[in-house]
Amino acid sequence: MALIPLGSGRQGRVDSGLALRRALIAAFMTPLLALAMGRNREWRVDMHGSRQVVLHTVTLGASGCFLLAVAGAETLLRGFGGDWALVLRLALLFGSVVVLATLLSSRDIRRRLNFLISRNFFFHRYDYRVEWLKFMELVSEPKNTEELPVRIIRALAEFVDSPAGVLWSLSRGIGHYPTASWKRSLPDNAKLPVDDPFITGFRDGGWIQQRTPETAGGAGPLVSDKAWLAVPLSYREEIIGFVILDRAKHAVDLDWEAFDLLRATGRQAASYLAEERSTKVLRDTELLTEYSKRFAFVVHDIKNLVSQLDLIVSNARHYIDDPEFRRDMLHTVEDSVARMNNLLGQLKADAAPRVPRRLNPSTVIGRVAAEFGGGSIAVEIRDDVRACTVAIDPDRLRSALTHLVQNGIDASPPQGRVTIASCRLGMQLLIDVTDEGPGMNEAFIRDELFMPFRSTKSGGYGIGAFQTRELIRSAGGELEVISEKGVGTTMRVILPMALEREPAASLVQS
User: Fold this and answer.
1) Distance of CA 443 to the CA centre of its chain
2) Residues 306, 312, 314, CA angle at the centre, nearest 5°?
3) Residue 66 CA from chain centroid, whole number
């Protein structure tokens, strides 16, 4: 009996066909089994592959199938197209490229495909790590000029494919009202009190309200046909706002995962809003503090001007008939008015900051000494550095020296003397204002002298020493106190010398 070789004859052909069909059947069954395992929640099968890898794999596979179908259609057109074969083939190629590019670039199709993959192949609907990083990047690190509320609306809308939304904020004494919108116009004259049933429906931030066909009509902002979801923004058990999201263009099935993600991101967004509000309040407080500081300085400078004008009035009773006194009085009054206007200009919100300029301090020292001339306390000058220059605003140096001289006069005994002496020490200018008063002890200088709103004078404001030190420090200098009980006090102004090679045009003489 002859043997039939394996693979030859009818029996061999049958075995080869079965082997080929078995491989094809296994290849087709693999994705179906994976799909069944993914959809069966009881099996608890959680695929740990990256969702982006799966999405790109499915996209490439679908694109490959589409191109194979185009290639098959092109083969048919080549064989049966006749005279129009070339034109039809070119049209097919161009049309397929356009269709494929449109599908791959469509954000809506990518979202739907990603949703389909997440729902059928993964145990969890969202990749929480990716979603949270996207949320944080969009809210905390914007690459555009959108305000924080708008970015929050966009971030929440991304989770449920919402096309637009409005953010409502809480204002004390007013209630909730719309403050920001994304791809929608703000509602006019809309307001909800804190105790409105719609607000209580959030259940202290633990509940997301949804407008469904069964609840048509809704409540509050959900009355609109476009309104779909109301996401609370809760911070420290208080609803500081909420976001109304419009209904998605396609059907979106919301489950417990979607609501949990919206609640968690809503709380995080509320913390960002609360932080921004606190920062704004702090910034406003700093502005008010700075304005109060400027106001106190201006009031103190005006007090010094009033003292000078009072001195002129006192001397006018005795020397009003002297023509030279009248000329000096007129000049002093004009100068005082100009300085008052300058001081009032510093209180304006848009007042430009003063830039230090190079000046000869001898001129300022001479003008300050002249302002106190003719009084019972003599003011003397000992100037040893007439050629030096410093970088400071002349009005600030004048204000500082005026305060120091005035304090020296107030502390000096009758027929006493105040001396303004200047000298150079290395690259520093020293201006000493020395009086013959009772002096101060070390504890008073350390603990009370520069404390704002503490004064030993009955009519003092307690801001002068602090203001003087701040004015000197703003020019890079320092104010030093040298005093001893029963000996007197020297207030030493230390200023850095200006560079000698700077242009002479920047030198200020008055």
Assistant:
1) 43
2) 105
3) 49
Residue 158 in any domain: the answer is yes
Counted domains in the chain: 3
Q: pTM above 0.85?
A: no
Closest residue by Cα to residue 472 from 379, 365, 393:
393
3-state secondary structure at position 40: coil
Query: Where residue 207 sits, what CATH number does that domain have?
Result: 3.30.450.40
Four-residue CA torsion sign, 125, 128, 132, 133: negative
Q: Residue 152: which residues within 8 A CB-CB, separation 6 or more?
A: 139, 167, 233, 243, 269, 272, 273
pLDDT tens digits, one per residue of 50-83: 656 666 677 777 777 877 777 777 777 777 766 6
pLDDT tens digit sequence for 128-160: 677 777 888 888 776 667 889 999 999 999 888
Dist. CA 331–CA 211, nearest whole Å: 78
Domain that holds residue 357: 353-506
Same domain for 412 and 388: yes
**Where among 88, 121, 154 does a domain terminate?**
121
Select from 281, 305, 329 the last residue of a domain.
281
Task: Say how far apart CA 149 and CA 210 lie, in whole Å.
Answer: 21
The secondary element (H helix, E strand) that includes residue 209 is strand 209-210
Give the H or E element holding residue 390: strand 390-391
> Is there a domain that residue 45 lies in?
yes
CATH number of the CATH domain containing 381:
3.30.565.10
Place of tokens 């970015």: 151
User: What is the layout of strands, in order, in the sheet containing 175-182?
Assistant: 175-182, 165-171, 239-246, 227-234, 209-210
User: Which amino acid is it at 38?
Assistant: G
- Site of tokens 């009190």: 193
